Amino acid sequence: MMVRAKDIMNLMEEEFPLYLAESWDNSGLQVGSGDKKVGRILIALDLDSFVLKQAVEQQVDMIITHHPLFFKSVKNINYASPLGKMIKTLVSADITVYAAHTNLDAAEQGLNQALAEKLGFVDIEPLYSASKEALFKLVVYVPATHLEEVRAAICTAGAGYIGKYADCTFRTQGTGTFRPGQDTNPFIGKTGELEEVDEFRLETVIYEQDLKKVLNSMHQAHPYEEVAYDLYRLENEGRVFSLGRKGCLVEKTSLQDYAFRVKELLGVKSLRVVGDLDSMVKNVAVISGSGASLMNQVIGQNIDLLVTGDLKYHEAKDAEAAGLKVIDAGHQGTEALVVPLLVDYLTTKLTSQNLLVELTPCISPECIKDIF
Description:
Elements: H1 5-15, E1 28-31, E2 40-44, H2 49-57, E3 62-65, H3 82-92, E4 96-99, H4 102-106, H5 111-118, E5 122-126, E6 131-132, E7 135-143, H6 147-156, E8 169-178, E9 195-207, H7 211-221, E10 229-233, E11 240-241, E12 244-254, H8 255-266, E13 272-274, E14 280-287, E15 305-308, H9 313-322, E16 325-328, H10 331-335, H11 338-352, E17 358-362
Parallel strand pairs: 2-3, 2-17, 3-4, 14-15, 15-16
Antiparallel strand pairs: 1-4, 5-12, 6-11, 7-9, 7-10, 8-9, 12-14, 13-16
């Protein structure tokens, strides 16, 4: 089966929907066309000269990055500039570029969730309520003969999740009536004659991001030419999303011991620490990348320690004054995990759909080097 860039983008947005991205962000298609045929994809943290060289040499069709190629408006494309030269190379090589940035950071199974699990957090929760997903109630009327088929189809597509429970539905039996009109092809009944059918009212809940997929699956599984269904937006709170995660360690440990553990788990050569190395930590938070800008979301939450990157001097002083310990493992150090995360995610998705696409991870060398 031919795979196009838009198919890959749809797979990405199933788990990392673009509406989760921050307003200042530029996640999504960066260069190229969704109609581009894709057989080989390079996955990287950034699109830099190192990654682009690998992409051209390996003749890839698509590059997926965490950081967008464009953050600000481009007023001209000067081939003599680094960005202009890169754009020219991408267009000449017919490579499509796609970025998943803060939407991937905030997603339920995104980068910060993976980081929290990697760093040994338990009882993991969103760090704060940055956004809440809308929740909908689906009611569909199904003939008794196809009840289980429709129920299985909508639940497989993502409906029926309440907390940690799956396949949550409710049904009541009744009698449906209808009169097929001219130019109809009814599954049951005859044109112009009133029909009564043994039907079930099947109810479930759907998260907003799964609406389209669930409704498509419902229509495919339902035997009727015209499916009778209702969709209600609920006041109930849906899933909460944020750019960070919080949790706790299995047992209290000293800041120094945990700092060494973070260094080893993330595979970084060095890190920086704010706080008394002999003090104990239990309640922890993590924000990938330049997370210190969200420090106010951490302070006041009974959190002992924040793991993040790109900590500035005045941010360190603010943390110290608030009694918050910080481990700065670097921007790349807290985000390099995104590459294997996306490789694993897309491999699973592609395999489940029997789609043949080659995925290649690519991590650029550190641009800032420790030489002492």
